[in-house]
Write a structure and sequence with these properties.
The protein is mainly beta. Helix content is 0%, strand content 64%. It is globular, with a radius of gyration of 14 Å.
Length: 87
Amino acid sequence: MFKPNGQLVGFGNFNYYKPIIDYIGEGMQVDQVGLGSSQKDIKWYGFKFNQDTLELYKLNCLTFDSTEHRCIDVGYGQLKYKLWRKK
């Protein structure tokens, strides 16, 4: 369960989530959400909705800026998790 305060319940070692709400800028080509065991230990995933299923993907860095040491173009990688809406 995704709670409004950023807590995540019932998803293994993931206790927190953090969606990206700013879609302007480099590296924001896909919808992203961070999941982690704490608010400071966040790993980013791309996500898509497929009807009643939330699909979470690894992120692939398509273009890396070696001067600034960051990814500036991302794409969906391997599908890692599927979450179905409880009815």
